[in-house]
């Protein structure tokens, strides 16, 4: 089997998604399954839908187009504010988009009129994480203009936390979002359909609160794919944390000094490494590198330690393991390592089906190739 590769267990992803859908449904919250880390894989999207997600969300229009091309039967939400240059494609392929700039919404309106389509808009509100969002004091005016635009349907509001600054969803910032919903409904005499409280980082908040207010949707990717919550990377009870694993192949295994010799300058990435002298070690090199993964996001097998990486090499102190050239090692991944590995064309993606067959996914066309 080719290496390096990601092995993707659809049964475990289904279990994670179904479990979260059911648990959140008991709180009156639906799940938008986020497909961006899978590059819009139609097979994984299909598993999300079978598990009961209400819609699919992606930050790249190319991924949404791939799922449309594969005829994935779902409502699609563009979860990154659309670029003006992609407004026509967003209107054509996405049912809803998350927005922060009225100039973009005006452009979506124009493109929707040309296409004779109606496009849904969710307005994102800034609640402290300082990524995207309309300032709360400006929201009513933005809603007013959004409601006036032809072929645009105001669907609701949302927010995003924890992605840039690590701000945690809590009773205070979620209450602000609920109050903004009440204000919009009172001002305009309408019902807000979607109140998207955030992403997988909201898990702890949801299940620690007796009242989740007006929040009725969460956008979830990491918790489904990796079975953990993003704030502390804590495994979620009852979920699989090994639905996706990375396999890499050994290309060198030798006893070497642990400390480099010679004058130390910058390495290939502009860093000046510091090392600890631990004597001679069994150094193992695997054929994967920073171009393909985030080394800091990998968990190596017990008894081994990642000690460095370059563009194409991952270096381990393999301890007492006698790893020979050609041997394979398995790693668990965090979200950062997963996204980079999924994006790399040099990492093969192997999908495990419930029928025990294996499929190599062609992530550029969105169509699987039988092995």
From TrEMBL:
<keyword id="KW-0663">Pyridoxal phosphate</keyword>
<dbReference type="Pfam" id="PF01168">
    <property type="entry name" value="Ala_racemase_N"/>
</dbReference>
<dbReference type="InterPro" id="IPR001608">
    <property type="entry name" value="Ala_racemase_N"/>
</dbReference>
<protein>
    <submittedName>
        <fullName>Alanine racemase</fullName>
    </submittedName>
</protein>
<dbReference type="InterPro" id="IPR000821">
    <property type="entry name" value="Ala_racemase"/>
</dbReference>
<dbReference type="InterPro" id="IPR029066">
    <property type="entry name" value="PLP-binding_barrel"/>
</dbReference>
<dbReference type="GO" id="GO:0030170">
    <property type="term" value="F:pyridoxal phosphate binding"/>
</dbReference>
<feature type="domain" description="Alanine racemase N-terminal">
    <location>
        <begin position="8"/>
        <end position="222"/>
    </location>
</feature>
<dbReference type="GO" id="GO:0005829">
    <property type="term" value="C:cytosol"/>
</dbReference>
<keyword id="KW-0413">Isomerase</keyword>
<dbReference type="GO" id="GO:0008784">
    <property type="term" value="F:alanine racemase activity"/>
</dbReference>
